Structures are given as structure tokens and as C-alpha cells.
Amino acid sequence: MITMLNDSLASALAKINNAERVGKKETSIAPASKMVKYVLTILNEQRYLGAFEEAANEQGGLLKINLLGNINNLGAIKPRFSSKKHQFEKWEKRYLPAKGFGIIIVSTPLGLMTHAQAKEKNVGGRLIAYCY
């Protein structure tokens, strides 16, 4: 079955969020874009997700993800707001439940990173996703 996706990242994050809510231990995502892999890598580094592996299929790849049960909420940020280096607190208030709780993933000129890393490196960027 071929499905048309408008936003593969938002679809992948919604599938992970739904699998976490029903208590699954693993889920699979297709298609596997570079953006999805980078976001999953950040979530893995921050201990929200377990390891993931790529499996080949005919429609752009498949990712099998181990879930740890550490995600309360996860989603893509639409539209992809632009944020200057001193505006991250405003976005934390909007997307995260408390200060210092959760992450916002930001696309910067230095690559994808969390908002805390962007603050440390003194760089702004576009908001991609949030997780707590």
C-alpha cells in the first residue's frame, strides 16, 4: 500500500507518540528521511528513545525503533518558527511544560541540535520538534 505523506517527520513523530501511549516496546517508521534519522539520533542521545536500526524496503527505507517509555509528549512544530538565540525561553514556555523539562529540536547553521545546545553555542535557528 502506497501512502502519500505531506510531512514525513510529523508522521514519524506521531507514530512514535501513539506507540508510546499504548505501551509498545518497538515501532517501525517508513519512509526514513535524513531529517527523521537526525531527529531520532537526538532523541536517542537525550534518552527519550532506545536504539534504532535501518532496514531496506522498496519505498525509501524503514526504521525500527526501540521505545523506552520515557516520552510524555512528542510532536513536530508547524509552522517551523524562526528563533533568535535569545528567544528560546519564549518557545520553551509555549511547547514545554516546565523550565528545564524536555527539549526543543532546532535546525541551526551548525546542524540539528537541542535548544539548550543552541543556547550554549550562541546560535539561533528554526524550530523542528519538541519532546518531554
Strand content: 25-35%
Question: What is the overall number of helices?
Answer: 4
Rg, please?
Answer: 15 Å
Number of domains: 2
Helix content: 25-40%
SS class: alpha+beta
List low-confidence stretches: none
Tally the beta strands.
8
Gross CATH architecture of the largest domain = 2-Layer Sandwich
The N- and C-terminal alpha carbons lie at a distance of 33 Å
What letter string, H or E per element, gives the SSE order? HEHEEEEHEEHE
Coarse shape = globular
CATH class of the largest domain: Alpha Beta
- Give the biggest sheet: 5 strands, antiparallel
Mean pLDDT across all amino acids: 93
The name of the CATH topology of the largest domain is Ribosomal Protein S8, Chain: A, domain 1
What's this entry about, in short?
The chain has 132 residues and is of the alpha+beta class. It has helices spanning 8-22, 34-45, 88-95, 115-120; strands at 26-29, 49-55, 62-67, 74-76, 82-83, 103-108, 111-114, 125-131. A hairpin with a 2-residue loop joins β6 (103-108) and β7 (111-114).
Provide structural commentary:
This protein has about 130 residues and is α+β, with helices and mostly antiparallel strands. The protein has two domains: about 10-65, Ribosomal Protein S8, Chain: A, domain 1 (2-Layer Sandwich), CATH 3.30.1370; about 75-130, Dna Ligase, domain 1 (2-Layer Sandwich), CATH 3.30.1490.10. Helices cover about 30% and strands about 30% of the residues. It contains four helices and eight strands, in the order αβαββββαββαβ. The chain has helices at about 10-20, 35-45, 90-95, 115-120, and strands spanning about 25-30, 50-55, 60-65, 75, 80-85, 105-110, 110-115, 125-130. Strands 4, 5, 6, 7 and 8 form a five-stranded antiparallel sheet that branches. A three-stranded antiparallel sheet has the order 1-3-2, covered by helices on one side.
